[in-house]
Write a structure and sequence with these properties.
The chain is α+β, with helices and mostly antiparallel strands. 20% of the residues lie in helices and 42% in strands. The chain has two domains: 75 residues, no CATH class; 188 residues. It contains five helices and 13 strands. A six-stranded antiparallel sheet has the order 6-4-2-1-13-12. The chain has a four-stranded antiparallel sheet with strand order 3-7-8-11, with no helix packed on it. A three-stranded antiparallel sheet has the order 5-9-10, with no helix packed on it. Helix 1 packs antiparallel against helix 4.
Length: 277
């Protein structure tokens, strides 16, 4: 919209100059219309001796400006200017899974989590490191599994309400405009990796059939597992103005657990400033 505003300002200056030049000829133009008997004012066409002063109906600035702004908005593209930013966003659901088959004779509780993540990255038009980012992970489900034999298990685990609030995290992200090829099409290369795991933990109230068998629990590992996929350096070819859908079936976190991403939606567009979208 920056280009549109500048264009409209120039139009306004031109019209003001036109008004100044024609101010002395107002009386002459009006009499010319009456003497010739031509009643062209009001036909929605600004021509002949008509101007903003003697025929505002046809030569007014409001209607002309509105039409021009609409036309420019339809034809506007951030690709035509060096200003603006490259905006990449992705979101999806991450699920952690316990590999009970590999636990052997271990007896105890295993935890599984589900969470929704959202990543927003702004890059310069020439590519390079992200100049702004807004990322979060939100716990959506907490599940406790018990393996072994016990007369008073399993327990009921209930996280505090605060556990389901978004938690922010930072990525080291770079966009390389190197002409990577994906599906026989030119693409840019997105490289990103988790910088630091959020240190937030949350409390879980525990209720078991056997009194005193389990105390309330403070969970500090949930975000480490939910963000385990982003620990590695991820490289993704992306194409401008294209929506991509990705999937991770099983990614091993440790011998006793793995994660999956049923669906990730990734988009890559150009935006005029850091406040969009």
């Amino acid at each position: 919209m920056k280009t549109i505003r500048i264009f409209l300002v120039l139009i306004t200056l031109v019209l003001i100059a036109s008004c100044s030049q024609n101010a002395n000829s107002q009386e002459h133009d009006t009499s010319s219309l009456s003497q010739t008997g031509e009643k062209t004012c009001g036909d929605s066409v600004c021509n002949g001796p008509e101007n903003q002063t003697n025929c505002p109906e046809d030569c007014g600035t409001t209607e002309v400006g509105a039409v021009r702004e609409s036309s420019d908005a339809e034809n506007y593209s951030s690709e035509e200017t060096d200003t603006g930013f490259r905006y990449v966003s992705s979101s999806g659901t991450i699920e952690t899974h316990a590999n009970l088959a590999a636990s052997g004779d271990f007896s105890g509780d295993y935890f599984e989590y589900s969470g929704f993540y959202s990543i927003e990255l702004w890059f310069p038009m020439e590519g390079g490191k992200a100049v702004q980012q807004r990322n979060s992970i939100t716990l959506t489900e907490f599940k406790a599994l018990f393996q072994g034999e016990s007369s008073c298990r399993p327990c009921d685990w209930e996280p505090e309400e605060q556990a389901y609030q978004p938690v922010s995290f930072d990525l080291e992200a770079v966009l390389n405009l190197d002409g990577v090829t994906e599906n026989n099409k030119s693409a840019d290369e997105l490289v990103y990796q988790l910088i630091k795991v959020p240190q937030q933990s949350f409390s879980v109230s525990v209720s078991c059939p056997c009194p005193g068998s389990q105390a309330d629990y403070s969970d500090s590992a949930a975000y480490q597992q939910l963000l385990g996929w982003f620990f590695q350096k991820l490289v993704n070819p992306i194409q401008l103005n294209a929506l991509e859908t990705n999937q991770v079936e099983e990614f091993t976190l440790n011998p006793l657990g793995y994660i999956s991403i049923p669906e990730e939606n990734l988009s890559y567009i150009l935006v005029p400033d850091l406040n969009t979208p």
